[in-house]
Amino acid sequence: MPGDFDLVKERIDLVQLIGEKVPLKRAGRTYKGLCPFHAEKTPSFTVDPERRTYKCFGCGVFGDAFTWLEKQDGLDAGEALRVLADRAGVQLTRRTPEVREHEKKLLAANDTALFYFRQALRGTTAGKAAAEYLVQRGIEPATVERFGLGYAPDIRDGLLLYLRKKGFTDQEAIAAGLVIEHERGLFDRFRDRLMVPIRDSKGRTVAFAGRAMRAGQPAKYINSPRTDLFDKSATLFALDVAKTQMRRSSEAVIVEGQLDAVSCHQAGLDNVVASMGTALTVQQYQMLNDMRLDREQGANARAIVAFDGDAPGTASAEKRGRELLRVIYSAPDRAGRGELGRRERLPVHVAVLPEGKDPDDLARSDPPGLRALLKEARPVLEFLIEQVRRRSDLANPDGRRRFLAETLPLLADETDPLTRDLYLGTLSRLTGAGEETLRQELAGARRPRGMERPPAPFSQGPGPARPVENGQRAAPSGQRELERYLMAQLVQFPEEAGRFELDPENLTDPDLRAIFELLRAGERPGPRYPAQLAAVAAALGASAPQPSDEDQAVRAIEMAAQRLRDRNLRQRIEEKRAARARGDGDIGGLDAEIDLLTDELTRLMHAR
Ligand SMILES: [Zn+2]
């Protein structure tokens, strides 16, 4: 919706919007106030009504109306657009006033139903039995409140009559998915079930899940049908309560069932959402991707999908892993908005629960165990290769051939050449097949696909952005951003410079490297810095977001440093490979070095 975007930006009064949170005073062409992103006594936070931007000359934060809402209210880009469009009176292209009115009606019907279900849990005899069931499941009253759990009485048209009484038409009750039209008349969709409201990311009730509580009920779960408010495959249950912690931890955990997610939150795992059935849909993955979980910390965001422990065999976990991989590869690369440039996809890891256990069981019986399992989650590709390895006989040539025939295609759609190479190395080690042979096999297996950009040649190095300028290999723009990000944090928290492991060589910019070495030696930015470096250090403050507190900064610093090491290792591996390909120097020695570096990279990828 590019048209909407510009129109909204045009119409929003940024001074008024920001003025609601920060008192602003006019100063010539701009407005000034105390920066909400860092502590200060004299105003250096400036709003420019003409350019429609804000900027702080103290901490360097800057942005527009959209990033303001994203930062202040924790909204994602789509939500910020909708909120601001509302405010500016801009009708987003796809929603006419009639549609908006209709949606409002359906939301109101859902709210009315929510009230009805919650009353029934407290006020009826059968509801008390449902409450008893919740107690047995270990769900505490505070959790019942937080998630708005309720009970649908076993009455044919109890909710229907209540909705009519509250002024809703039968058509509205049907359109909201609360009532079913049958040849014998109208029926409540949910009867004698524990009710779990499904809310969107803004906390609005858009649907319900009804869970059976006794044997003999036809389905364990009944969900609302697809309505104008609700599309199951594009909704993540509990996102409204999980998003803050997801951003804070740069990590999203996905479980299957709503009650799994409820139990996880009760156990203090606040970054858990439920996919409601399948492992993860493309739209759900896209939603997580759009949250830009790596934005605040500058590093290593991931989504962890928790698989229930299977019965013996684990064929089904493998199947779900393959499905997950397909989802990740079929999600289009996200187009970053301007300043952030091209972005990587959110990596997806897999955690497998012990046999016969689901997240609900573990969250209730062993929260630390569940945390440990999630922490050990492995990239989905690695998980799949391991699954195939376990059921393969690598001791005989035929088994190895079959193993390769199954695993090589898994790498075919991987667009990051170094990730691909890393796994080729794994396959080579497991089977004894030469890496070069495998690479050729893989090249044969890679089918060109219309939507994809052509794969970068292996020698070109990590990441897509790696321009070659004046015959010299420039650092990838991601690298430069990362270096500046890390150093901007360190200039603000200089005492952190000595507290983590990072070889200064990891910084490609000589000025940044010099500042890093000075900081590490205990020399804070000041008059004793050479003028050039003092200027760079001062400018650094204006290039990175201000962390909300010191803990967050420390974590951001650690993660950025880890990421730099990761990038650097990848680059060194590439260089050794290139040298080896050119026949430069001692081949055996290069091989050994490549092995060492690859091991180090593997360890780093797992260190969290
Ligand atoms: Zn500031």
Structural description of this entry:
The structure is a single chain. By secondary structure, the protein is α+β, with helices and mostly antiparallel strands. The chain folds into 4 domains: 87 residues, Alpha-Beta Complex (DNA Primase, Chain A), CATH 3.90.580; 134 residues, DNA primase DNAg catalytic core, N-terminal domain (Alpha-Beta Complex), CATH 3.90.980.10; 153 residues, Dna Topoisomerase Vi A Subunit, Chain: A, domain 2 (3-Layer(aba) Sandwich); 134 residues, DNAb Helicase, Chain A, CATH 1.10.860. The protein is 49% helix and 12% strand. It contains 24 helices and 18 strands. Helix 21 packs across helix 22. The protein is globular, with a radius of gyration of 27 Å. About 7% of the residues have low confidence.
Short description:
The chain is of the alpha+beta class and 608 residues long. It is built from 24 helices and 18 strands.
